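$ run holo --ligand "NAP" --emit tokens
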Amino acid sequence: MIGTIKLKDGSEFPAFGMGTWYLGENPDRRAAELDALRTGLEEGITLIDTAEMYGSGLSEELVGEAIRGMSRDSLYLVSKVLPSNAGGDRLEKSLDASLKRLGTDYLDMYLYHWRGSYPLAETVSKLEAMVKKGKIRRWGVSNFDTDDMDELLSVPGGRNCCVDQVLYHLGSRGIEYELLPYLKDKNIAVMAYCPLAQGGDLRRQLLTSPVLQEIANKYGISVMQLLLLFVLHDENVCAIPRSGNAQHVRQNVQAASMKLLEDDYKTIQDAFPAPDHKTYLDIV
Ligand SMILES: NC(=O)c1ccc[n+]([C@@H]2O[C@H](COP(=O)([O-])OP(=O)(O)OC[C@H]3O[C@@H](n4cnc5c(N)ncnc54)[C@H](OP(=O)(O)O)[C@@H]3O)[C@@H](O)[C@H]2O)c1
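-- output --
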């Protein structure tokens, strides 16, 4: 059973979903990727995270194909606007193009992908206008650290930001020092991207750690699944692993319904400690 996070607007946000970066770009993998996304939907995942940037729209098109014919109410669609499109009349045009590729008339969540040169007040006013028009239900940001958040919350409407999507996995725990508690305090949910450290590529030691392997064995799961359990241990965090492999998606859904015992959580934390000081926000 996939949990939910209560957002500040009172709505329920799925605590688990499917990422889609790189999906839809390779025609040879398309069938397997569609199968993976549809398997996730059949297994009870509702949230799909995509972006206009991914494959310059190809990922959104793939998602559109995967969800075709499904009841819109049963889905939670998240997409993102590029910084270069986050102001003027560009934001609405970008959003309209995303909606068209996805084959829907609204997004459940629209994220400002990362900060660019448009003033935050302008981007927020455009996002709020899209909420009023019914094209998005709510909005959030991505790759915002605490100083960006402070600025965001000070502009008109900025407090309506519902989530911050940031890089977070066991091998990169910098956000635990300041950003995670800050967001919890402001009632802003966290979407953890790269929760699997990109299949271990971002921190190879995760795959070779005897400590992780031993705990994974104890639960009868893989180290990849264990990485998901780590991220999901925080009840304010949603994880969005990406997979183009239906079997991996099934494993990820299974992990999303499990819980780590506190002792094991602590052992894992000790093996890959969080920094004891403020660090730059990791991004990919
Ligand atoms: N806001 C941002 O700036 C930002 C940046 C990066 C990512 N994101 C979002 O976050 C999502 C997740 O991040 P990510 O795609 O970079 O990396 P990730 O989810 O950490 O890792 C994806 C890799 O893990 C593998 N994998 C997935 N499940 C597995 C399993 N059960 N066992 C073994 N391997 C498994 C996948 O391979 P297979 O396909 O073979 O399963 C893929 O190579 C993205 O897709 C995107 O939606 C957002």
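-- notes --
The chain has a mean pLDDT of 98.
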